[in-house]
Automatic annotation (TrEMBL):
GO MF annotation, one: ubiquitin protein ligase activity
One GO-annotated biological process of the protein: proteasome-mediated ubiquitin-dependent protein catabolic process
Name of this chain's protein: U-box-domain-containing protein
Alphabetic keyword roster: Isomerase, Repeat, Rotamase, TPR repeat, Transferase, Ubl conjugation pathway
Domain U-box: 210-283
Classification lineage: Eukaryota, Fungi, Dikarya, Ascomycota, Pezizomycotina
TPR repeats: 6-39
Catalytic reaction annotation: S-ubiquitinyl-[E2 ubiquitin-conjugating enzyme]-L-cysteine + [acceptor protein]-L-lysine = [E2 ubiquitin-conjugating enzyme]-L-cysteine + N(6)-ubiquitinyl-[acceptor protein]-L-lysine
Superkingdom classification of source: Eukaryota
GO CC terms of this entry: cytoplasm
């Protein structure tokens, strides 16, 4: 009977989730878990709802529990990465995102998650790169580092104050999350403005280094050298797509049948890649 009740409660939770009633969805999934605590999908469902409520740490707990019950759990790793990134752990988030991508790419059936997971992996990699760039810029300029540290300290104090107001009941969970997010965004904007000001005075060392998304391969997530385009219009690094097709003869994103003979050189993108490498070879290999 408990398994049946758990399934019914999960369906009720799904209905609430679709209507955007995330508090109710979490309550129903929690009740379902009480009836069947060994179902990994219940934890991923609740994690997704908790992500919507910006309950990052609770979502992480659900994902870890789900993974402990089912190791090859694409959604759990995907949701885990999202929570980790929101908590400013880009290295861990990238590892989780790559695991989700690997599981998605090995799937034998078409999935609508491929594009979302691919985009998220790139987002995590850029966040990791930005963190390294921040450290590099700080090392180049002591004053900039001191000013950035001051802004970060101010942010931590403000977030701590928000948490205290949440504990005392002055702020609800949603309002606290919104204020925390606004504080984080404001601090980041100030840091960007600060860096831009310093970059103007020292462009050779402090100029922001970025990699355009269209130059990044959607399999290895490295900057391409020899891009090819499929008949479906997606471009990949030749070596990585050929290696992928040896294992699984489908497009990694669309999951449609694909063979090496379907690949054609992407001459326009190759020109853009060559230009980027020529102008940025001193640091691009670190991406």
């Amino acid at each position: 009977m408990s398994l049946y009740q758990a399934e019914q409660l999960k369906e009720h939770g799904n209905a609430h989730f679709k209507r955007g009633e995330y508090d109710e969805a979490i309550a129903r999934y929690s009740q379902a878990i009480q009836q069947n605590s060994n179902n990994p999908l219940l934890y991923t469902n609740r994690a997704n709802a908790r992500l919507k409520m910006k309950l990052w740490e609770d979502a992480m707990d659900d994902c870890m529990r789900s993974i402990s019950l089912m190791a090859e759990n694409m959604k759990a790793f995907y949701f885990l990465g999202q929570a980790q990134l929101e908590l400013h752990h880009p290295n861990e988030a990238l590892s989780s995102a790559l695991m989700a991508y690997d599981l998605c790419s090995k799937s034998s059936h078409q999935t609508s998650s491929a594009f979302a997971i691919t985009g998220f992996v790139l987002k995590c990699k850029k966040a990791k790169w930005d963190l390294r760039e921040k450290d590099r810029v700080r090392r180049r300029h002591d004053l900039l580092g001191e000013l950035e540290s001051k802004l970060e300290e101010d942010k931590k104090r403000e977030i701590s104050s928000i948490e205290e107001r949440k504990v005392t009941g002055e702020l609800g969970s949603v309002a606290a999350s919104e204020e925390t997010e606004a504080t984080t965004e404001t601090t980041q904007q100030k840091i960007e403005e600060l860096r831009n000001s310093f970059a103007i005075s020292d462009p050779n060392h402090l100029e922001k280094r970025e990699v355009p998304e269209y130059l990044v391969d959607d399999i290895s997530f490295e900057i391409m050298h020899d891009p090819v385009v499929t008949r479906h219009g997606h471009s990949y690094e030749r070596a990585t797509i050929v290696e992928h097709l040896k294992r699984n003869p489908v497009d990694p994103l669309t999951r449609e049948p694909l063979s090496v003979s379907d690949l054609r050189p992407n001459l326009a993108l190759r020109k853009a890649c060559d230009e980027f490498w020529n102008n940025n070879s001193g640091w691009a290999f670190d991406w």
